[in-house]
Design brief:
Layout (H helix, E strand, L loop, with lengths): L5 H9 L6 E5 L6 H15 L7 E5 L11 H12 L6 E6 L20 H8 L5 E6 L7 H7 L4 E5 L5 H8 L3 H11 L11 H23 L5 H13 L7 H11 L10 H13 L3 E4 L1 E3 L4 E2 L5 E4 L2 H7 L7 H15 L3 E12 L5 E14 L2 E8 L5 H8 L11 E5 L6 E2 L5 E4 H6 L5
Parallel strand pairs: 1-4, 1-5, 2-3, 3-4, 7-10, 12-13, 13-15
Antiparallel strand pairs: 6-9, 7-8, 10-11, 11-12, 14-15
Helix pairs in contact: 3-4, 6-7, 7-12, 8-12, 9-11, 10-11
Amino acid sequence: MEIRRDLYLKKIISYMWDGQVKVITGIRRCGKSYLLRVLFRNYLLGQSVDDAHILTFELDLARDIRYRNPLELARTVRERVEGQEDRYYLFVDEIQMSDEVSNPYNPDGKKITFCDALNDLKSLPNLDIYVTGSNSKMLSSDILTEFRGRSDEIRVHPLRFAEYYAAVGGDKTEAFEEYAFYGGMPLIRSRPDDAAKMNYLKTLFSEVYLRDIAERKKVKREDALSATLDLLCSSVGSLTNPNNIASSLNSRQKLAGENTVAPNTVKAYIGHLADAYLFEECRRYDVKGRDYFDYPNKYYCEDLGLRNARIGFRQQEMTHIMENIIYNELRIRGCEVDIGIVYSNEKNKAGQSVPVAREIDFIATHGGKKTYIQSAYALDNEEKAMTEKKPFGLTGDSFPKIIVRHDIRKRWYDENGVLNIGIIDFLLDESIV
């Protein structure tokens, strides 16, 4: 069954024939190649594009191994396209498999790379170029950087809940529970049972992601990288920083002396995990002071199934899982997302008035529009409801305010104009944010 990825397909279509190289990025195994070679190809064929005008090179396959030489790739494409009246489309999958080769006119000079080849082919007015790729040799974030402003990025994520539910159907609540447990990696649906799904997700970390990072970044302390990953997975939705992670890591593993892991090492490893699209950092923002805090911040996993697998499918706290799902959904919708900090003046035990920081889970900004969002598993009494709503009243502005909840099905507005909406309803209605 075909999984629809309309959000990304529409974005690719909007970039057609803009003179740039289209670079499809994202975590490995999230469906980048499927988007390009199946969904976009089918769209082109449906627009009466001749299949012979879609030039596809899969550099990870033996049949296309000769085209890992960027000069050979450029030569072959030019012979097919240059001087023709018809339009052509170039798909290069797994571009990081391309080799660096010597310049035949200056063997001792700078190596020729795939970037040189594709930037050369960009000059052909009847050719539109699309590439995907990420692995230990060159993660997809690096591929984007290589084109230095001469490319468009289509960032692909694992399946959002709306895409997942469109594929599985059935009872929405059951589908959400399954999604919150196994996440949205596209191939998870093809696994026959729970054991196979769990093993697939665990294998992605151990044999794909961590190996990629360790090889490409030349990580010396793979044990520390693995432990940092475990701590981030355990602390999604909680404030932390490299100092705390390093301290916890050293304490848990009883490391001392030369074996101690430094905060700067942890910071570098977090950066590696972010470069591989496994985690994103969400920073705290002073709403009225209009400034960011350095630390602590929160880190959210790109896919909950991967996170759950990494910690052995334990720690299934729906409060944190909901936060992570909402964060990912906001990012997929194109929002910039921060944690909001507001202050209330409250009396301490000595009767003195002191500022107390209150947190708004997310400030989502999109196209100049700002929305404040709280994630709440359940508000089963007035005290909990007041605690969640109180930070909204301290913002001093009239931007929309939403509480996303697990314990309601129908949406409603309270007397202060705050929208209360169920998590499933929120995830299926893009018009809200």
